[in-house]
Design a protein that fits this description.
mainly alpha
């Protein structure tokens, strides 16, 4: 398999077996693949009524833990909310709630929102990754090792 996200030598089995842009974005993000920004742009640009792209962008910017990226995360939240107004979606609403919580200084609120998503859809790998990443940033090692727990929020 190719290193550092080089997809030129990947086999078909290395690629997500879907043409769904969200699935491709999640797969790239989970692999820490250098194509993640391209997948994110594809999701945002080609699906103008889907809130998940901008909301994922907001979380990704905050996970970089750079103060100057907070404005971009705030813009992503605003765009996600605008898209939610156009096309309401309960899952995306939880993502928005969590992102707003984190932006307001409550990262545990973001974890709680992701845990609600996971409760509704245990296969939501992006929500699992976001919850785990925030716990890592907070130093919640005991909860991370235990596999997450709503009671720790």
């Amino acid at each position: 398999m190719a290193q550092n996200g080089d997809t030129s030598t990947r086999t078909a089995s290395d690629q997500p077996a879907t043409s769904d842009p969200w699935t491709r974005l999640v797969a790239a993000f989970l692999r820490h693949d250098r194509t993640t920004p391209m997948r994110l742009a594809e999701m945002i640009d080609n699906h103008p009524n889907d809130a998940m792209g901008p909301l994922a962008k907001g979380y990704m910017l905050l996970m970089l833990a750079r103060r100057e990226l907070r404005i971009g995360a705030m813009d992503a939240l605003a765009e996600g909310r605008r898209r939610l107004f156009i096309r309401p979606d309960a899952r995306a609403a939880h993502y928005a709630t969590g992102l707003a919580a984190w932006l307001s200084g409550n990262p545990r609120g973001a974890i709680a929102a992701m845990e609600r998503v996971i409760g509704d859809n245990p296969m939501d790998a992006m929500a699992v990754k976001i919850s785990h990443a925030i716990r890592f940033m907070l130093g919640d090692a005991d909860v991370m090792v235990a596999g997450g727990a709503e009671s720790a929020v």
